Amino acid sequence: MKKIKLMIPKGRIFDKVVKLLNEAGVTLESDERAYRPVTNDPSIEVKMMKPQNIPKLIELGAHDIGFTGYDWILESNAKVEEIIDLKFDPVKIVCAIPKNLSVNELKKKQIVVASEYENLSKRYLDKNKFKYVFLRTYGATEVFPPDDADMIIDNTSTGRTLEANNLKIIDTLINSSTRFIANKNALKDPYKFERIKEFEMLFRSILDARDRVMLEMNVPKEKFEEIISLLPCMRSPTVSPLYGEGGYAVKVAVKESDAVKLIPKLIKHGATDILEYKFRKVVI
Q: Where are the domains of the chain?
């Protein structure tokens, strides 16, 4: 049996990735503590690793596809093909210093810079002409200043942890989120290419569905054109005549964030019996 090798990240994005796979019909018969979970699809071989290791292993061809952060793709200089930005766990990689220091002060001396991101940090520091000693960290980077580092380069989603440690952001290096990636040679294999495109289609449909709801309503004939003009949709609404020619049943897919404001407008303009329900997948 032909197989495709999939890498799943341990850590904070594990649950979101597993949920996405479940919705795509791929279930794991283990948990995060196991490194080689079995799936319900024997053609998929799974291994779990830290997200830092995944991009380079996929580049080297040990595995065909996987999930990791964009920050780790850049940090490892991995030559992989990005298939989808899943937008899970968006973070910024930032440069931060103690609030009582300034950039000008730091540029006058050799400084200690602490970070998990050695390559990203050195590229940034060299470009901005800092004189520095780099200190590799293994988590909890924000606790190093001011005693053990003058500057840190770290990921943050809200900045609150930095603020709590009396640090200020002076620059943003990149924006990062979870990506679905593939080995470039795997895309040249007809079987693997087809499987990867199937995953891409399913993941996109699931992500689109999460953002949308279906609105279904009854519309009187005399209000039809007026109400149709209010409806945003992916293509065009589905319209069916009601029994007894009393009007129309209208279905339309809208963004969930729009539905809250749209429903009162529809009622005001004469729509009745409005239903709202979620999708499982949306293929556009």
A: 4-86+178-209, 91-176, 212-278
**Cα–Cα distance for residue pair 163/159, rounded to 1 Å:** 6
DSSP-assigned states of every residue in 10-74: -STTHHHHHHHHHHTT--BSS-TT-SS--BS-TTEEEEEE-TTTHHHHHHHTS-SEEEEEHHHHH
CATH of domain 212-278: 3.30.70.120
Burial environment of residue 7 by CB neighbours within 10 A (0 to 12, 13 to 18, 19 or more): buried
Q: Which two tokens stand for residue 201?
A: 């289609």
Give the per-residue pLDDT at 246.
Answer: 78
Which residue is it, tokens 């595995």? 63
For the segment 54-80, what is each residue's pLDDT rounded down to a tens digit? 999 999 999 999 999 999 999 999 999
DSSP for 79-107?
Answer: --EEEEE---S-EEEEEEEETT--HHHHT
Do residues 83 and 180 touch, judged by C-beta distance below 8 A?
yes
* Intrachain domains 4-86+178-209 and 91-176 with the same fold: yes
